[in-house]
Amino acid sequence: MTDVASRASLESLLMNRSLSDVELMRASGGAPDYAILPEVSVLKIGGQSLIDRGRAAVYPVVEELAAVKRSHQILIGTGAGTRARHVYALAAELGLPTGVLTDVGAAVADQNAQMLGYLMARHGVPVVGGSAFGALPLYLAGCGAAIFSGMPPYDMWQRVPTEGVIPPYRTDAGCYLVAEVYGCRNMIFVKDEDGLYTANPKTDPRATLIPEITVEELIARDLPDLIIERPVLELMRRARYVRSVQVINGLRPGLIRRALAGEHVGTIISAA
Description:
272 residues, alpha/beta, eight-stranded mixed beta sheet, two-stranded antiparallel ribbon, globular
């Protein structure tokens, strides 16, 4: 089928079928891909793993981000961290639903984005959110970077988890979705560990590093502890652009630069 015929078929289906029609969904899925920001890399700066550690951890990361933005276009997403866990505990104890927990968790990720923005203000890096995303190309062309809050803006429309009330789509998922929707070059999770381990290395001395693994292998292992949110794995299964992510240790100087250059310096999780 030619592109013209394909477009005509899709338009006809859209005008005459329900948006949940199987044939319509298949036809829309066959539409050509268009990467919006293919030269941009998304970096997720962990809240609990880095920002909550204060000056000793954050200042070196800020300096490295300021240096790499001279040669790479980067979008910097922030996690929520320990303060979000406190508000989740309070909200859950009060019996509040998942959508409310999403709102209060997003507020903490917003605060971290603002603090990181103030630290990077002297380097000309702005904080963007919501409607300001439309100006991303301008910010990237002007200074090579922009900061955003990693929490996806589901608010009260957050998907209800199968168990408990903790929002399943949090800042890891939010940063990944930005990378996927914009068709970005890389998705790098900057944490406080060398990558993915067989268990939590902070509590289990027998935990061993997994340098590389596929999404399917990781799901099959059903590890008790993951360094990234589990919904990211499901998102990667259906991704069109960001088919692999890398988890690196932000406490080790130089790894952000090396990861942006394409080096394998942590754990690579791939959908292939």
